[in-house]
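comment on this one:
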Amino acid sequence: MAMQRWLGAAAGVGLLAGLYLALVAAPRDAVQGEVQRIMYLHVPSVLTAYLAFGVVFVGSIAYLKSRALRWDGVARSSAELGVIFTGLTIATGSIWGKPTWGVWWTWDARLTTTAILFVIFVGYLMVRGFAEDEATGARYAAVLGIVGALDIPVIHLSVQWWRTLHQPATILRAGPAPMDRGMRWILYFNIAAMIVVYAYLLAVRVRVEDGRRAALDLKLRRAQGAR
């Protein structure tokens, strides 16, 4: 609990400091102007979503191999957070796209594959909600989580495979980053802060999931004892 509180404090401080750096300290972009500042939220959001779904991928494989409910709880918790961060990515991308491209949304390859990722993991959560029992839902969701995570490299490489409006990768690319050094380090700081926020939320959500499973187990044992 103490570690979780420290992680929460670090997440809060990092997020506030990152917003200050992005909105006040970062230099104004020479081409896009002030609207470019949304990059400091958009890019960290998508990279954190990638991380969240990467955890789902690992947790789902581990669950299918071991049937350990702990792994399923981690995958489920991370999937929920991944959906939130992907939704934030799509929202900030639309806000950025309107003044840059003139439209809120276009069926660009990167936007489309990101939307597909979002829909897959919304489906993942729906499978969990509508499954007849926990074990069946966990098994089906694990398979869907593994398949869904495979969309991430497609999203990342889409700007190279197809002609798109979306700019090339800013961080995960070969060669030097195409931005001022000061802007780059502020972006790195915001990425780190967003990952800490994710880690804190994941720790809280896994704890809630453990409590939920413990309550279900207790209810089942009481029901069996009553018989």
